[in-house]
Amino acid sequence: GNSVTQMEGPVTLSEEAFLTINCTYTATGYPSLFWYVQYPGEGLQLLLKATKADDKGSNKGFEATYRKETTSFHLEKGSVQVSDSAVYFCALIWGIVYGGSQGNLIFGKGTKLSVKP
Amino acid sequence: EAGVAQSPRYKIIEKRQSVAFWCNPISGHATLYWYQQILGQGPKLLIQFQNNGVVDDSQLPKDRFSAERLKGVDSTLKIQPAKLEDSAVYLCASSSGQGSSYEQYFGPGTRLTVT
After folding, report:
1. How far apart (Å, rounded) are the C-alpha atoms in residues A76 and A17?
2. What is the tens place of the pLDDT at every residue in A19-62?
3. Interface subset of B 62-91, CB within 8 angstroms of A
4. What is the 8-class DSSP label of residue A104?
5. pLDDT tens figures, B71-114
6. Most A CBs within 10 Å: which of B4, B32, B102, as the mutation test of the A interface?
C-alpha cells in the first residue's frame, strides 16, 4: 500500500549547520508530496509541497525536490536556526478526485529536530 | 482569517467512559478531516467529510467511534466506550476542496488520556 518512510530522530544540530531529513515514499500513480512542521505546543503547518516529478518546493529557507526515480522528497536547509526546532512530517496525498473530494494525507512518523545555540 | 478551532484542548477520562471532541473549520472550507496521532507516530486519518457527507471512514473503528457534521460546518467526534489505546492527540483539519488545492489546515488538537 501507500506509505511514507522518514529518517528516525531525534536530530540534534548546532545553529547554522546544514540539515537533511530523508523521506522516501511508496505509492501507486503520481502522488503529491508535502512537508509539514509541528512547533512545540502548536498545530501542524504546511511547510512546502511539490505536486509533480522534479518540482522543488521551498519555504523559509527549506527546500525539497520531488524525485520520482528514487521515490524521495528529502528536506534540506543550508543553515538552521534555534527557531527551526520542531517535529517535521513528510506526507503524500493520493486518490485525488478533481472537482470533488480530495485524497487523504498519509504521514511518516515524524523527525524531531533540536537546534542548539 | 481565523484558523481551525478545536475543543477541549486536553481531556482525561477513565476507560469505558465516553468523550466528545468538537471542531470548527475555517469558514467556507467544504472538506473536514479527523486524524488520530498516537505518540511517536504520524497522524492517521479517521474520517473525511465533504460538506455534510462522509467521503472516507474506512479507518474509523465504528464499534466505538462516531462522527457527524450535520450542517456541513462544525463537526463532533465521539468515542464510546474509550479504551486505553485511544490515548492520542485528535486533530481536525479542513481544506477548501477547490480545484487542485491540496493544502489542509490543522487545528491545535485535543490531547486525550485514557486511564
Report:
1. 11
2. 999 999 998 778 889 999 999 888 899 999 998 899 999 999 99
3. 91
4. P
5. 889 999 999 999 999 999 999 999 886 554 567 899 999 999 99
6. B102
